[in-house]
């Protein structure tokens, strides 16, 4: 009985587990520090109040409940001993025969971690609800005051980073201001909000072709988004961002400018790239450790390619499945194969009914690209229940411009709080910290 | 133009606002410290992972968007000056001609506010998601360890308070253990969980007739819930509860044992009862201040009754509408009327397909009571969108025992955190605090 440990319940880990599920002579333990698989490509829709967290997140153990040879543990892996073949988590230690590392990336602030407080990134449900809280709260704050200058300061949104996430966030905020909120306020006109998308490089969407990126920039402008390229951010504080000598005041700053890999690769002393991703062999194993694999965003796979494979869901999904099949081949006494990526292209949405899609030389944009985007995303949503509700929710929202999850949920749940002196104090659990 | 200020966007405030909406010579400002109206009767379903927060909460300003004479402000009221007729909130001060206070109750710990940390109550979305996090997390913790004795300690749930909320929480936990989670774990059997409902008085559901309460206790037992009456809790800490000399170890303690009114009544120096509720006149106004009203859970209305009206949604709803109509009568030069409550009865669910209903001498229980409960609750859910999705979600859950919102969402969204010394530290934003 071979014990396969999978670290991470994202696209790579979950799809590997499914291939190994109910196979004889294989026992699987999947470790994740969250209890849910998160459908990352739709996370920005939670941050933008269009979907509820539960619509894009499913308990990992529910997805895998039918596979009796798989144990799911919610725990955080803190170390791997390649020689002893053990994984150490906060609450347990386990021995493996095969190990699949697929614990992904987090956003990175290029050494300025103190910026996170002022400019949250978007990788987890917690971050998405925090961004939703901030975005919705500034409209509430602006409605409370009557001074127009101050209102505008409240209604300035800066998004740092012009990749797909930054574009999707900026487009969604533009749409919220133009359509969703227009009738809901008395003292402000949400259409007057300033939305600024800042990109350090010469153009947005650098992974797309220049003409599609141009069109996207044009469509963003139509939603009221001001795109600023070649503008590296040099500082961020609670009141705005600094771009070299220029100061931009903003009440809401969102970070979509960069990621780095989970620190696990560096901690193991194996070959990693500049982002901390594990450099893998042609079969996705780690050099000199054929029993250890890395997949998804955590892996740097460059074989036969000019640049490493990008951090996209199809890459992770294919790699997870591929590794599981190689393990099955090997335990059946067959030879391993090398990984080949079947390119599924890339896409990004701009607002409610517009998207860009690029697959090799095939490029298209507009409503049909958006329809394709919707169909593909629903298809890949892992659990049937979620597909069903997300579809309904989208159809509903499409026709009435509503956003069904416009909740400001605070971080503090307590009503009675201890103050610094240790005395009890009534809190009013709705106050924003 | 008369200015009506409504404090609180619950059943009373919202229904008053709707009556006053688009009426000539009336201007309304509704203040609430949350941005959403919360459908309180279903809040335990969020805590029990059956519904998502957005399915029972709707932005107040969206509900009232069509009434151009109503301004909604998210702000917390901290004082009322009855003589000057002004309301002071954290961010603004306003003058009123009529004032409706409807800011409800919070749970109370009988002077032991330090218990809240260990035994959260259920009044807000934040508290519901906190309870959900705690309940789901102990199953995860139990799955991680292999020692059976420790597993059972993790899987002991204590609910303090045998009113409808306590009964609904205990029944739902019983059902989760018996049906929802059975296939999802490998190291534990969720059916072995201990669920203990503790009531200080001689029986549970004291507001219901004794025979219905008996039947409810019997049905709870069938779901694995141990009911302990005449057991006043004397202490609560992180590891369990104390009932006089007896100690009950428990990983999860939930508080459903008592409420007290918003402190606003006491701060105004008007007549209040022992729970801080404002004692109101027959027309729901405050003595000597006919321009100020209280409604819903915040009001103590005892005219022609042996006991004050209970804290139920129909009471709040009828009172809110009644006050608004009296204001309209008065501004039209007509005389006020006195409030009469049209009794809508009371109900409580026990698990998935069982409920008790009592309306005067009419009493029934079982599946048809539960069906009635479902129909009535969907009917009253304020926004159409929510009714629609909640209905679907319920139909879906009923047939497959699923709970669609089984998410453990943490309190901390940051990845990089400052430690006490002020240095940056990598956090792992999934760690439970």
Description:
Two copies of one chain form a homodimer. With 433 residues, chain A is an alpha/beta fold. Chain A has two domains: 2-107 and 259-331, FAD/NAD(P)-binding domain (3-Layer(bba) Sandwich), CATH 3.50.50.60; 113-257 and 346-400, FAD/NAD(P)-binding domain, CATH 3.50.50. Chain A contains twelve helices and 27 strands. In chain A, the strands form nine sheets. A six-stranded mixed sheet of chain A has the order 5-2-1-9-21-20, covered by helices on one side. In chain A, strands 13-12-11-17 form a four-stranded parallel sheet. In chain A, strands 6-7-8 form a three-stranded antiparallel sheet. In chain A, helix 1 links the parallel strand 1 and strand 2 (26-32). Chain A is globular, with a radius of gyration of 23 Å. The interface between A and B is large, with 81 and 82 residues.
Largest interface, counted with CB-CB under 8 A?
A-B, 81 and 82 residues
Shape of chain A: globular
- State the low-pLDDT regions of chain A, or none: 419-433
Structural class of chain A: alpha/beta
User: What distance lies between the first and last C-alpha atoms of chain A, to the nearest angstrom?
Assistant: 52 Å
Strand order of the largest sheet of chain A: 5-2-1-9-21-20
Oligomer: homodimer
Number of separate strands of chain A = 27
Known CATH architecture of the largest domain in chain A = 3-Layer(bba) Sandwich
Amount of beta strand of chain A: 15-25%
**Number of contiguous helices of chain A:** 12
Relative helix content of chain A: 25-40%
**How many domain units of chain A?**
2
Rounded average pLDDT of chain A? 90
Quote the CATH topology of the largest domain in chain A.
Answer: FAD/NAD(P)-binding domain
CATH class of the largest domain in chain A: Alpha Beta
CA gyration radius of chain A, whole angstroms: 23 Å
């Amino acid at each position: 009985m071979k014990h396969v440990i999978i670290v991470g319940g994202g696209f790579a880990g979950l799809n590997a587990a499914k291939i190994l599920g109910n196979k004889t002579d294989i026992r699987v333990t999947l470790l994740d520090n969250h209890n849910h698989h998160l459908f990352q490509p739709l996370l920005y829709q939670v941050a933008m109040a269009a979907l509820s967290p539960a619509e894009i997140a499913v308990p990992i153990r529910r997805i895998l409940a039918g596979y009796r040879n798989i144990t799911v543990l919610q725990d955080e892996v803190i170390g791997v001993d390649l020689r002893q073949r053990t994984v150490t988590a906060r609450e347990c230690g386990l021995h493996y025969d095969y190990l699949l590392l697929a614990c992904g990336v987090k956003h990175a602030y290029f050494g300025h971690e103190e910026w996170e407080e002022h400019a949250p990134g978007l990788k987890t449900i917690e971050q998405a609800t925090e961004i939703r809280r901030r975005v919705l709260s500034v409209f509430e704050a602006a409605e409370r005051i009557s001074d127009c200058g101050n209102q505008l300061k409240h209604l300035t949104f800066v998004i740092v980073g012009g990749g797909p996430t930054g574009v999707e966030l900026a487009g969604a905020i533009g749409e919220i201001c133009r359509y969703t909120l227009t009738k809901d306020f008395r003292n402000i006109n949400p259409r007057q909000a300033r939305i600024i998308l800042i990109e350090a490089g010469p153009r947005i969407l650098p992974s797309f072709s220049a003409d599609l990126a141009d069109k996207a920039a044009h469509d963003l402008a139509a939603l009221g988004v001001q795109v600023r390229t070649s503008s590296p951010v040099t500082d961020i504080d609670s009141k705005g961002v600094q771009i070299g000598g220029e100061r931009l005041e903003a009440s809401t700053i969102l970070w979509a400018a960069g990621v780095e890999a989970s620190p696990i690769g560096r901690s193991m002393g194996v070959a990693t790239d500049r982002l901390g991703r594990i450099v893998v062999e042609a079969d996705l194993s780690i050099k000199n450790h054929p029993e250890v694999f890395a997949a998804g965003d955590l892996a740097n796979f460059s074989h036969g390619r000019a640049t490493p494979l990008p951090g996209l869901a199809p890459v992770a999904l294919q790699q997870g499945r591929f590794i599981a099949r190689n393990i099955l081949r090997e335990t059946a006494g067959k030879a391993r194969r090398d990984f080949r990526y079947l390119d599924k292209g890339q896409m990004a949405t701009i607002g409610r009914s517009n998207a860009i899609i690029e697959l090799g030389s095939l490029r298209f944009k507009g409503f049909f690209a958006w329809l394709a985007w919707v169909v593909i995303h629903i298809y890949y949503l892992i659990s049937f229940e979620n597909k069903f509700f997300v579809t309904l929710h989208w159809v509903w929202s499409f026709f009435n411009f509503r956003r069904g999850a416009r909740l400001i949920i605070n971080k503090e749940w307590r009503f009675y709080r201890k103050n610094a002196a240790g005395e009890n104090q009534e809190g009013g659990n709705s106050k924003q910290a």
